[in-house]
Amino acid sequence: MDPMATLLSRPVLPAADAGLPAVRRRETELAARLGDEYGRGLLVDAAGARVIDPRASLLRADGSPFTPRMYACLLLAVAVLPSVGARVTAAELDARVTALAGEAGIDPGAEGPLAWRRAVAEALLTLRAWGVVGEIDGGLSGYAEDGEDALLAVDAALARLLPLEGGAS
User: Fold this and answer.
1) Which of 52, 55, 127, 157 is in Cβ range 3.0-4.6 Å of 47 for a Cys bridge?
2) In the chain, where the domains are located
3) Rounded to whole angstroms, what are the CA distances from 36 to 28, 41, 45?
């Protein structure tokens, strides 16, 4: 696949992605094209590559936009991921995101515990789509709906690429 097409279809590429070597070889050209043609930036380092789009809105798997609560959960998850280790359960991540939300003055219980768990799970599903987390045992969809825990693999180096100052995509 053409490196530009790869970046446009998958805005976050982990170090192990087969398309990353081509992106690295053509980084200068791709960065210029992304800026000129799409108004986007490109960040490439040892952990992978990320397309930066300051105008982007995050969309859920069904195409609907993220709610403010989901976006907050995504930012909080990105903040805690580099410190959780290579494997962590969805419930542990949820607990860390919830604690950080409290520190930030966000009331996780405002819409009820199920709505909060679903928002955290939606954030984790987005991170899964970007290759930052992967499901080892169980699934995030099950965690969202009935609280059935899932064991996740975390690519902490790739998570550090996601400050989300302007959004990825």
Assistant:
1) 157
2) 3-52, 68-159
3) 12, 10, 21
